[in-house]
């Protein structure tokens, strides 16, 4: 148990019949009149739904002990993704629903953090940016080196993003895993 005064971003709370909610942001508010309160933005760990919730300051909230483990993506087994714990070398199959959009950026050997609650994987956190090779993109038109325009490019994971016109097939690029945006070339 904790109180709303102890809230931190990333903390996981157990609310409303055992549902798990992750704290996205919070703000302590002390109005001139009346009691202080805490305004929060919470994200449902399983569904991804984000809600705003207000608590009175000092209210007791139940926290969930979520174990964040460093894991490495090993291989795909049917539909499931198999991850290996980098400490114990135990393997854990994770369903595509839990992996979610992270699947667009996963390569064998990719390091990430897996949040586990009572033995069940909840979600996967990737690094903010990953380096991937462009598997295929249309050649840019000669003289078309100005800024602005983009074209589709298929990455080695099979995911398609928009890249600048000067990017060619076989180049290694940096991609933002939160937005799926092109961040730049990787000089090898």
UniProtKB/TrEMBL annotation:
Keywords, sorted A to Z: Cytoplasm, Elongation factor, Protein biosynthesis
Domain Elongation factor P C-terminal positions: 130-185
Classification via InterPro entries: Elong-fact-P_C, NA-bd_OB-fold, Rib_uL2_dom2, Transl_elong_fac_P/YeiP, Transl_elong_KOW-like, Transl_elong_P/YeiP_cen, Transl_elong_P/YeiP_CS, Transl_elongation_fac_P
Keyword Protein biosynthesis: yes
Gene Ontology cellular component list: cytosol
GO biological process: peptide biosynthetic process
Cell compartments where the protein resides: Cytoplasm
Gene Ontology MF terms: translation elongation factor activity
Pfam families in the cross-refs: EFP (PF01132), EFP_N (PF08207), Elong-fact-P_C (PF09285)
Translation elongation factor P/YeiP central domain: residues covered: 68-122
Record PROSITE patterns: EFP
Family matches, as SUPFAM superfamilies: Nucleic acid-binding proteins, Translation proteins SH3-like domain
Pathway: Protein biosynthesis; polypeptide chain elongation
Top-level taxon of origin: Bacteria
Task performed by this protein: Involved in peptide bond synthesis. Stimulates efficient translation and peptide-bond synthesis on native or reconstituted 70S ribosomes in vitro. Probably functions indirectly by altering the affinity of the ribosome for aminoacyl-tRNA, thus increasing their reactivity as acceptors for peptidyl transferase.
Homology family: Belongs to the elongation factor P family.
Name of the protein in its database record: Elongation factor P
Organism: Streptomyces radiopugnans
